[in-house]
Amino acid sequence: MAFLGISGMQYSGGMFADARIILAEDSNVFTSMIGKRLKELFDIDVEICRSFEELQLSYDKSTDPITLAISNINLPGAENGEALEYLVDLSIPTIVFTGTFQEGMRDKLMAKDIVDYILKDNVFAVDLLAESICRFLTNHRHHVLIVDDSPTARALLSSRLKRYNFRVSTADSGAKALEILKANRDIGLMITDYNMPDIDGFELTRRIRASIGSHELRIIGVSSSSNRLLSARFLKAGGNDFMLRPFIDEEFYCRVNQNLDTLLQIQSMRKERAVA
């Protein structure tokens, strides 16, 4: 069935019946709502664990890998966040579903390299969770290229994108980026630094736009410069978006999603016109 997410994400592909999803949550209301919604949307049968002991047993009883875990911060038997620590230590991709949001809590969660966190404090919480799950299960279809001459910056962006299940390629120069794009026409998003020694982000974008349009490749520019006019110059060069460092994970992921959603919508419209 077609799925339209709260943020505008559209998905009409196949179901995810083979995905093994663990739900560590002790609220009967939320376990019922989440289980019903994921079955309805994606044909996913969620494994429900209402305590830390049940979570451990669920992991131990099967050798099948866990695709994704959804976990409350506190569970019976793990009132101090031990369940989340357990999942993170096992390198299981995890979305936190919590009713508590404080700045300190948010920082601790993001430091654990979780996939996402969803707050229970609104009527759209379950739909937001369903969208986050759908994105994680489909992000591997997107190939993203990171272009930056800084090894640290490349590693940081790469780790962020891989956390969300994207396929990632990296280039340490504009010239290398052009080579990778030529060899990998499935790349749908490029994130490029502005200040690079061989070809800066503006020139790289101009060269790419000479042969690849926005309907094939979205381009996000990034920079640590305090010059706010860089965004205008970059957009005029053919870029689709621009972000000044430092940016927070939620903002970064939102902008990546928006650009990829736009790309898919454009491609879908072009296919419909071609058929008509």
UniProtKB/TrEMBL annotation:
Residue numbers of 4-aspartylphosphate PTMs: 193
Keyword Coiled coil: no
Transmembrane segments: none
Alphabetical list of SUPFAM superfamilies matching this protein: CheY-like (SSF52172)
Database matches in Pfam families: Response_reg (PF00072)
PROSITE patterns reported for this sequence: RESPONSE_REGULATORY (PS50110)
Keyword tRNA-binding in record: no
GO MF annotations in UniProt: protein histidine kinase activity
Superkingdom, natural source: Bacteria
EC number: 2.7.13.3
Record-linked InterPro entries: Bact_response_regulator, CheY-like_superfamily, Sig_transdc_resp-reg_receiver
Gene3D superfamilies named in the record: 3.40.50.2300
Keyword terms, alphabetized: Kinase, Phosphoprotein, Transcription, Transcription regulation, Transferase
GO biological process per UniProt: phosphorelay signal transduction system
Every Response regulatory domain range: 20-135, 143-260
PANTHER family with a match to the protein in the record: RESPONSE REGULATORY DOMAIN-CONTAINING PROTEIN, STRESS RESPONSE REGULATOR PROTEIN 1
UniProt-recorded name of the protein: Peroxide stress-activated histidine kinase mak1
Species the sequence originates in: Rhizobium favelukesii
Gene symbol of the encoding locus: rrpX
